[in-house]
Amino acid sequence: MKNVRLYCCTIKHFEVLENLPDYIVPVGLGGNNFPNNWLIEKVGENISDLNPYYAEFTMFYWMWKNKLSEFGDNDFIGTCQHRWLWLNEFYKKKQRFTLNSLYSKLLNPANDIFKNNELVHLNPHYFSKINLKQDFEDCHNINFLMESLNFLPEKEKIGFEQHLEGNAIYPNNMFITKAKHFNEYCSLIFPWLEKCYKFGYENNLFEGYNKRLIAFLMERFSSYWFQRFKSKSQLSYSRLGKIHLSNNLNKIIPTMKLPFTFLQYPTLHKF
Q: Which residues have a Cβ under 8 Å from the Cβ of 242 and sit 6 or more positions away?
């Protein structure tokens, strides 16, 4: 069995994360308090002060600088978030008749998907009427995306610009890959993001909904980066609702382990 470890980021303490399988490790981001047994990004080399802008990518940086050395090149390292968890299969439709718990359907590190793939990503979303470039400009009403291209190495700039003419996006900045590829990814993106952040900060672009422009940018760039892998596969995910995120309930009973809680999963979106 391949060594697989996922880091699950959150800016708040959620009791449900105490009941995750051992291979999923919660990481506290930002300035809130977390249990003493948790990992927090402020311990070790970090860019925690940029979390309001970088969002989950401050965890990516922390993983790269502080945890990657614990992995062999071919071990798998991945990410998820407190409300978005990996499932063990790829589903084309919601499960409407099942007795299973959600917990029983979470990703199993013994999944055969890790035998023949270099990358595992979520099932993509497809925009029906516009491309990735148009969607970004419509949502954020600024030219940050195209300006960011100028800070990339020429080869990546050309490839990313071409990718933005397409309509497929892999959501939530979640993926699992071999440690050697995660190192390549981080070595590429963080010098680039530093320049993107400087441009956005100097031009007062990080306001309101656009405060996390870096994360929105990376959702598109990661989708482009995935294209270079020939051996890759996809899985579905679950978006936790209010019941699972209730600290009061989960102090009494781990809600994800209750029967029938896999009903209406996986999470599916249409654009």
A: none
